[in-house]
Amino acid sequence: MTVTPKRIYRSRSSSQEFLFSKPDTRCYKPGWQRPSVALPSPRQMKDTTFANSCLVRKEPFAESVLQRTRASDMFCAVALRIDTQNDANPCPNSQALLAIFSELAQHIDAMCGQINGIWGFCDANTLGCFAPDQPPDTALQAVKDVQKHFLAATGFSFSAGVAEFPQIDFEPRLVLQNACKALDHAQFCEPSSVVVFDAVSLNISGDKLYQNDDIEGAILEFKTALQLDPFNVNVHNSLGVCYGVLGQLAKAQEAFATSSRLDPKETMAIYNNGLVHLLQNNSKRALELFLEAYSLDKDVFEIPFQIGKQHLEMGHHNEAAEFLEKAIQLNPMAAVAYRLLGQCHACAEREKDAIKAYKNAVKYNPNDAAALSALGCLFEKQGENLEIAALFCRQSIDIAPDVGLFHFRLGKLYYKQNQLDDALNAFNTAQNLGYDSNAYISKIQADQTAKAS
C-alpha cells in the first residue's frame, strides 16, 4: 500500500483560504478508476445458502455483528468492495457481476468458516465480515489470501479495510464503521489494497465531513485521530483549519504551532498560521509567515498570491506585482490574481499593463465586477470610446449594485458625456452607499441651477 501523504487544496472558508492536506487520490495505477462496482442486492442473493452469511439468517448484518460483540472481548471487522477494472477488463454487466460476486461470496464464506465469522451487506456496494476472537493480523492475512484466489479466479480485485476491538475508547458498535473508514482509506491507494484502521483513516473521514460542511463532526474525527497518532502533522493542520473556519483563532493557532513544532518545514501550517494573523489584523507578521512558507515551497499558488496581496495592501506595488505574477504562473486562469495585478499596475500608473491584466481577469471571470469597473475607468483615462467604458461600468453595477465606487465611476463617465441627470443619479447612489461624491453632486446641482436661471 502506498499513500502520498500531502496534497494541498483550499478550504471552504468564506473569509480566508486555509490550506488542507489529504492523501493523494491520483495514486492509482494508470487506467484504474473509482468508485467501486455496485454489488448485487441482497434480494438478488435470496436463494443462496452460504452458511456464514447473514442472508441466511435474514437479519441486518450490522445488527447481527452488534449482538455477537457482546460475547467477545476481542474481535475484528472487515469491509470490502470490488474494484472497478480498467479498459482491458471493463465493468461487467449485471448478470456477469452476479457471477463474480457469487465467486467472491464463496471465498468470503469459506474464510468466515475458518475464523468462525459471519458476513453480509454493509451497504449497496460494500460487504462486511465479523471475525470474533481474532487479532487484526489474522484477519489481514485471511483477506489477502482471499484477494489472491479471487483475482486468479475472476481477474477482478477488491480492496478492504480492517478494524479491531479493543482500540482506545471505541465502543464495540463503532468497529464496523471504523472498518468502512479504513476501506475509504484503501480507496485512496492502488486496487487490491488492504488498510488497517488508523489516524489517516480518520483524517480522510474528517475531510469528508469537512467538505460536507460538518465542521464540528470533522473536529471530533481529527481529535480521535490524534488519540491514535498524536504526532500526525497533517491531522494537527486539519484540526487547525477547522478551528480557523469557525473563528476559534487561538485554538487554530495552537494547532498550527503544534504542526510546525512537529515538522518545522510543514508549509501548510506556516501558511495557515499566517492567515490566522491576518484575521487578528497583524498583517506584518502574516506576511513574514507567508514569505517563510514560500521559501520552503514555491509551487503552491495561494502562497505567492497572499504575499502579493499583502504587499499590495501595504502599498508595495512593485513587490506585489512580482509575487502576483509568480502566482499566475502557477495558475494561469486565476482571475482574482489578474485583477490584483491590474490594481498594482494602475496604482503605479502603468495603465496599459493594468488594462491587460484586467482584461485577463474578465476573460477568466466575466462576472468580476471590480475588474469590469476598473476597465471602464481606465478606458476613460486612456481616451477610449466612452460608450464602451460606460458599458463596462454598467455591467459592474449589474453584478454588484451595492458598491459605491462602481456607481461613482459610472457617474464620472456620464458627467464627461454631459449626461448630467444620469450622472447625478449615479453620484447620489454612490453617496448613499458610503462613497463620498459630494463634490460632483454640488457641482452638477450648481450647473443645473445656473442653467435654470
Describe the structure.
The protein has 20 helices and 7 strands. The protein is α+β, with helices and mostly antiparallel strands and 453 residues long. The protein has 2 domains: 8-232, Alpha-Beta Plaits; 313-452, Serine Threonine Protein Phosphatase 5, Tetratricopeptide repeat, CATH 1.25.40. The strands form 2 sheets. Strands 4-5-3-6-7 form a 5-stranded mixed beta sheet. Helix 5 (175-186) crosses helix 6 (199-211), helix 6 runs parallel beside helix 8 and helix 12 (302-313) packs antiparallel against helix 13 (317-330). The model is unreliable at 1-15 and 24-35 (pLDDT under 50).
Query: CATH superfamily of the largest domain, please?
Result: Reverse transcriptase/Diguanylate cyclase domain
How helix-rich are the residues, as a percent range? 55-70%
Structural class: alpha+beta
As for the CATH topology of the largest domain, it is: Alpha-Beta Plaits
Quaternary class: single chain
Structural key phrases:
single chain; 453 residues; alpha+beta; Alpha-Beta Plaits; Serine Threonine Protein Phosphatase 5, Tetratricopeptide repeat; two-stranded antiparallel sheet; 20 helices; 8% strand; disordered N terminus
